[in-house]
Amino acid sequence: xxxxxxxxxxxxxxxxxxxxxxxxxxxxxxxxxxxxxxxxxxxxxxxxxxxxxxxxxxxxxxxxxxxxxxxxxxxxxxxxxxxxxxxxxxxxxxxxxxxxxxxxxxxxxxxxxxxxxxxxxxxxxxxxxxxxxxxxxxxxxxxxxxxxxxxxxxxxxxxxxxxxxxxxxxxxxxxxxxxxxxxxxxxxxxxxxxxxxxxxxxxxxxxxxxxxxxxxxxxxxxxxxxxxxxxxxxxxxxxxxxxxxxxxxxxxxxxxxxxxxxxxxxxxxxxxxxxxxxxxxx
Amino acid sequence: xxxxxxxxxxxxxxxxxxxxxxxxxxxxxxxxxxxxxxxxxxxxxxxxxxxxxxxxxxxxxxxxxxxxxxxxxxxxxxxxxxxxxxxxxxxxxxxxxxxxxxxxxxxxxxxxxxxxxxxxxxxxxxxxxxxxxxxxxxxxxxxxxxxxxxxxxxxxxxxxxxxxxxxxxxxxxxxxxxxxxxxxxxxxxxxxxxxxxxxxxxxxxxxxxxxxxxxxxxxxxxxxxxxxxxxxxxxxxxxxxxxxxxxxxxxxxxxxxxxxxxxxxxxxxxxxxxxxxxxxxxxxxxxxxxxxxxxxxxxxxxxxxxxxxxxxxxxxxxxxxxxxxxxxxxxxxxxxxxxxxxxxxxxxxxxxxxxxxxxxxxxxxxxxxxxxxxx
Lengths: 282, 375
Ligand SMILES: Cc1cc2nc3c(=O)[nH]c(=O)nc-3n(C[C@H](O)[C@H](O)[C@H](O)COP(=O)(O)OP(=O)(O)OC[C@H]3O[C@@H](n4cnc5c(N)ncnc54)[C@H](O)[C@@H]3O)c2cc1C
Ligand code: SF4
Ligand code: SF4
Ligand code: FES
Prior knowledge:
The complex is a heterodimer of chains A (282) and B (375).
Chain A: E1 15-26, E2 31-38, E3 51-56, E4 60-65, E5 75-80, H1 84-90, E6 97-104, E7 117-123, H2 127-139, E8 147-153, H3 162-170, E9 175-180, E10 190-191, H4 195-200, E11 208-213, H5 216-228, E12 236-239, E13 255-256, E14 259-260, H6 261-264, E15 267-269, H7 270-277
Chain B: E1 5-8, H1 12-21, E2 25-32, E3 35-40, E4 51-56, E5 59-64, H2 81-84, E6 88-97, E7 100-105, E8 113-118, H3 120-134, H4 141-148, E9 151-155, H5 166-169, E10 181-187, E11 192-198, H6 201-208, E12 213-214, H7 217-232, H8 243-248, H9 255-262, H10 268-272, E13 279-285, E14 291-298, E15 308-309, E16 312-313, H11 318-337, H12 347-350, H13 358-367
The complex binds flavin-adenine dinucleotide, iron/sulfur cluster (2 copies) and FE2/S2 (inorganic) cluster (FES).
One iron/sulfur cluster binds next to helix 12 of chain B.
């Protein structure tokens, strides 16, 4: 699952992609997804966990993880409308053309979990960058022992990819647990933070590979819970987020201690971050 | 290195002429607005003859010299980086045509340039930026294009400035590598000449086209003596022993807050620093909305927005930003690029409005080391 460079010579120049389909994932489109296709016909091959820089004409460029299936046709991104660029992008419709640079960054080492338990921990929009890993595990289900997807989000209305989650949950060979911070009428599922789902266990810590993606605080607690449960730091992977302006290692924005998150990450094996993970404002 | 030659002061213009004949725009030191800056130089008369610069923390002043040295100053506020990594450049222009986007890369001004008067610390800074921008996995093709055509005439320092500490950083004052020609200026009551040494074939070819003669042992010794004197008279010192571990072990040291009480977070230090490479991008559209521009400009880790992600800046406090700057220069740079990010030019000390001194801040942390060993 390597990602051959499908970039033009100058890595700062985007390729054109057409939005084939734009749809709301949450509410009236606070979170939305796009299915994109390249105008030049050459598919963008990627590995789960990698991201692209998406450019809207005259508005700006943002790093967004790829949320689709690496082994299926089409490029899928899932975005949360939070600010200048992502809110402008929210208004784009099918048929419109955007710029795409990528793929960039390190991938979820799904193959490393073969023959072992795979534990995926997602918080909020963090489920989007992890979804390609879920697809990968499902496509090659026989290669893994137990596969867990532990997902926490704010409230029931914010649950991302709900239909898919329900479908996966119905599958007998995938353990899907969802929890919300705040329940509400009509919610009979788990309430509380995602770390509670980790504490329940069910996986064999010495033979587990865990991958976490979500807000930094959530990952902090998820890692603590995993470690407390006996999963070693070398078996835990996290996806980090920092401001990014180039994605190719020279704008300096994504630095996190010695690391450039755009090229050394976003996916890091936790033991490489452990010495600095508790430093504030790094 | 080739056998040293002598270029007489009176023949200096022929050196500039030979560079121009080879199609180079010569960029060198000039006096402008009370400072020595790097800009186009046509003849030796444009050079800061008879001027020197006085440096101290938060202090810079030009002063007349008692002699007519051409390179009798140290370093000015503008490093060479602005020619290879311009403060502002167009990454691409996008136009909308029939529902599609057309991307046009920005035009790169890569006409051949000659840098005249590059100091040893600055040469090291160039080598560092070469690594940052060209070592990959992706290269900054615009930097690469500009860099490839640069001809470098270095100048050995025979006097050190009060904020210099290249000896500590092992980056000077003697020019080592990376140049085409290296000059050492010798001036006294009787004579004024340059010891010239070629550092490349291109350099040797250029020298051959300029009036020169072989150097006597005495002339060579006079030049080397000047450089040795500069090494002896460094204004500052930085103890680099174990520096990476020292700084990364002290990320929680109270001294960061102490510096933050003085630091204005003005970003001057990163702008004058010859190795700082950070940039940001901005987008704009033409009035009719038909054309958009994606521009890249210098940015600094001292700017609050630099580390903005949803909800706020990661480095919200001045202490965390100063810590990022200093630990990047002197510690994490080793992890990233296998060298220090500081060449000891002292510019950040001179141009800090409140005179914050990188050498003194490191010394303060060293003096009260609270190291945590695992970083
Ligand atoms: C590797 C990576 C993968 C990401 N994947 C996704 C994804 O799959 N889906 C998704 O919705 N979001 C994702 N994000 C976050 C997304 O990039 C930001 O939400 C987006 O940049 C916000 O831009 P804006 O102009 O809409 O917001 P504004 O708040 O207006 O942004 C202002 C500036 O800050 C930067 N910025 C703001 N928030 C972030 C942030 N969280 N991370 C990085 N830069 C930020 C912007 O790029 C912009 O330069 C990812 C971020 C990174 C680094
Ligand atoms: S940190 Fe200061 S002394 Fe070091 S290279 Fe930069 S400007 Fe020069
Ligand atoms: S010190 Fe700051 S501005 Fe300079 S290269 Fe490092 S992060 Fe960028
Ligand atoms: S995003 Fe520019 S260096 Fe990483």
